[in-house]
Each structure stands twice: as C-alpha cells, then as structure tokens.
Specification:
The chain is mainly alpha-helical and 170 residues long. The protein contains five helices and four strands, in the order H-H-H-H-H-E-E-E-E. The longest helix has 35 residues.
C-alpha cells in the first residue's frame, strides 16, 4: 500500500510539473507564476466560503438532532478541495475545484463512494420492492431512533426474491 501511494504521489508531481511547463510555454513564466498564486488565493477564498456553509449545515443538523448525512461528506470534500487549491499546481487546482464547487461535489462524492465500495468489496443491491398492507384504524407505530428522535415504523412484507449482498453505500 505504501509503495502504491509513493508511486501515485510521484506521478502526480510529474503531472504537475508537466502542466506547469506547458502553461509557462504558452503564456510565459511570469504569468504562470501569477496564475498559480491567483489560484492559491482563490482556493483560500472558496475554502472559507464553502467551509463556512458546510460547517453551518453540520451545526443545523446537530441542533435538530439529525445524523450528519451529506453535510459531513460536504465538509470533508471542502477541506480536501481547499487543501488541493492551496497547494501549488494546476492539476491539484482542477481537482480541488471539483471538490469545492457545490454543483460538482455530488459527482466527486459518488466517485469516492464507488471507489470505497469497490475497495471494501461491497456491491449495490438491486431495487427492493415492498408490498404494503394497511390495517384499518392503525396510524403507524412510532419508535425511538437516532438521537431519541421519533421514527415512524411502517410494517410490510417483501414481495419477490431479495438477495442480501451486505450493506449498501449511501
């Protein structure tokens, strides 16, 4: 595992140098250095703005006694994206922007989720169809869920064959 990380880090550094040289030959060395500095400043600004929003979403979910859900992954992606934007290099800036911008964050989240699921050997189960029957006069039972919040329990039975392939990534 350590060797693979060193190889990937070396390839990443080589790509950063190659892109830097290509950009410098295209617009000049001075303009390239200024562009690299500008993307660093942009990274700090985006990280501050998006980081504040992500932390506010986490705080709201905590106050409402709800699990963090996507707010936690958004906060993590903002932190990673900000770190990549602050590092010098145009390749890291492009990947950092994907993590920082709200429209592209779901794409990164899905890619990371698929990668983790594959690494952990998890496979997504197909759709589960549930046939529900209503009992006259019953309004549904309630139970205590995470953080003591009431959860509505809906009873039913599974219609058709279901193959359990383990936990599904969310």
């Amino acid at each position: 595992m350590g060797r693979r990380i060193r190889v990937l880090a070396g390839l990443w550094a080589l790509a950063e140098i190659a892109v830097f040289v290509l950009v410098a030959s295209w617009i000049g060395v001075g303009a390239t250095v200024l562009a690299a500095l500008a993307t660093t400043v942009l990274g700090w600004a985006l990280m501050a703005r998006q980081g504040t929003r992500a932390l506010e979403a986490l705080r709201e979910r905590a106050v409402a006694h709800r699990p963090p859900g996507r707010a936690a992954s958004d906060a993590g992606l903002v932190a990673v994206g900000g770190a990549l934007m602050v590092l010098p290099g145009f390749v890291s800036d492009a990947v950092g922007l994907l993590c920082l911008l709200p429209p592209t964050r779901p794409l990164v989240r899905a890619a990371v989720g698929r990668g983790l699921a594959a690494r952990l050997g998890l496979s997504a189960a197909g759709p589960v169809r549930v046939r529900s029957t209503r009992v006259p006069g019953a309004s549904g039972a309630t139970a205590s869920g995470a953080f003591g919040a009431p959860v509505r329990v809906i009873e039913g039975e599974v219609a058709g064959d279901v193959v359990d392939s383990g936990p599904r990534p969310s």
